[in-house]
Amino acid sequence: MYDIVIIGAGPAGLAAAVYGQRAEKKTLLIDEKGYGGQIINTPEVENYPAIQKISGFDFANNLYQQAADLGAELTFEKAVGIEDRDGIKIVKTEGGAYEAKAVIVATGAKNRPLGLDHEEELTGRGVAYCATCDGAFYRGRTVAVIGGGNTALEDAEVLSGLAEKVYLIHRRDAFRGEESNVKRIQGKENVEILLNTIPTAFLGEDRITGLRIQDKESGAERELQLDGVFVAIGQMPDNGAFAQQIQLDDKGYVAAGEDCLTKTPGIFTAGDCRTKKVRQLATAVADGAVAALAAVEYINQQ
After folding, report:
1. Across the chain, how many H-helices and E-strands are there?
2. What superfamily would CATH give domain 2-110+235-301?
3. Which end of the chain is more exposed for a tag (fewer CB within 10 A), N or C?
4. Residue 55 in contact with residue 3, Cβ under 8 Å?
5. Where are the beta strands (DSSP E) in 207-277?
6. In 33-79, where does DSSP find H-type helix?
7. Residue 5 clears pLDDT 80, i.e. is over it
8. pLDDT value at position 44?
9. Is pLDDT above 90 for 190?
10. Chain Cα centroid distance, residue 270
11. Rounded mean pLDDT, 130-138
């Protein structure tokens, strides 16, 4: 019997483990792939308060070591469901089951990829998914943003203040984002908007040198010489296995506010997997602390 079982060992889950163990609650982390989450793929983190620069791998490793030193346990398994038996939560995995007094769902969300060849190999080498996180690396360079929603528009705006030239590429003839965001980006002199355009191939071997694009109407192709490509076509949560126990929104995110409480007593959530506007490393870690303290309060009240 564990006090707290945390599903997901990314920054939110690891932070929750730290706070759970500091409250002297026996805590277990479950993750299919390992600890660290997506941040381990980020070469340099420069936007985390009080840490000027650190690799994503080192950040994740330090956070894991802190949790482990406090006594948190970690198992590499895929969680496939949660059951409630007389107030005790049963977290089922492909290999077994774990009992807990409280559960924190911290499964994260992964960036939706374009699906082009070599995308994974070029991630962190010119292919990026967060202008707020990585935009500063492209100061004075030429970049492209792919997408048509508010995230793409906001990324293009951020990059317009850093890069020399920004291409904003969207496959449809109109943006899906808010009109105010569209008008702002249309007023940027260094942003070139390419509608009805799809990316067809990344250029470059060890890192991005450009992007091949195609006009959907004419079929004509051209190559853009670029230093970076920012993919902003949405994220993909992975919470379907828990839909019977917790409420999800229409996009599959856990329905929960800043208090990290789900609609189910004893089940909490943290990080990018929950409904929220800002998904950053700092907000994921903050969620982990909030969810863990809420779980501790719940356990103590029981």
Report:
1. 7, 17
2. FAD/NAD(P)-binding domain (3.50.50.60)
3. N
4. no
5. 210-215, 221-225, 228-231, 235-237, 267-269
6. 56-70
7. yes
8. 79
9. yes
10. 12
11. 90
